Amino acid sequence: MGKKVNKTNPGLLSLVDRLKRQSFEKKAPVWRDIADRLMKPKSKWAEVNLSRIERYAADDETIIVPGKVLGAGALNKKVNVAAFRCSEAARKKIARAGGKSISIDELMEMNPEGSKVRIMR
Q1: Cα–Cα distance, 110 to 116 (Å, whole number)
Q2: Phi, psi (rounded to 5 degrees) for 11
Q3: Which of 19, 7, 6 is nearest to 106 (CA)?
């Protein structure tokens, strides 16, 4: 049987609780998916470089990273990126390209139904 993951970060646990509640209230399965991914062991979390976002995202798209966004690579598209964590280099490059780096909470407030977002891992 697999090892049970015990998360202790109160901010993460609170976020996961809000994601599950939002998923249920708005009938938006995307939030439950993000919550489930964040409850996995940290070694299984997504670590996405900007080069991957550049390669797979379209202009004006909203990307969710259930993990961390790293600043490796160039970004020339205007994309909004929501992540649990984002490196300072990644934030600067996203802003320079005309996009926004926001928290998953902020995205949930702006887009309660979770429509037109892409999960990147």
Answers
A1: 12
A2: -65, -40
A3: 19
Quote the pTM value: 0.92
Cβ-count burial of 104 within 10 angstroms (0-12 exposed, 13-18 middle, 19+ buried)? buried
Amino acid residing at 25: E
Rounded Cα–Cα distance for residues 100 and 29 (Å): 24
Are 40 and 59 a contacting pair, CB within 8 Å?
no
Q: What is the percentage of the chain residues whose pLDDT exceeds 90?
A: 93
What's the rounded Cα separation, in Å, for the pair 83 and 53?
12
The span from the CA of 107 to the CA of 111, in Å, is 6
64 φ, ψ (degrees, to nearest 5):
-115, 130
Query: Cβ(16)–Cβ(35) under 8 Å?
Result: yes
- Could you tell me which of 85, 108, 103, 106 has the C-alpha nearest to residue 21? 108
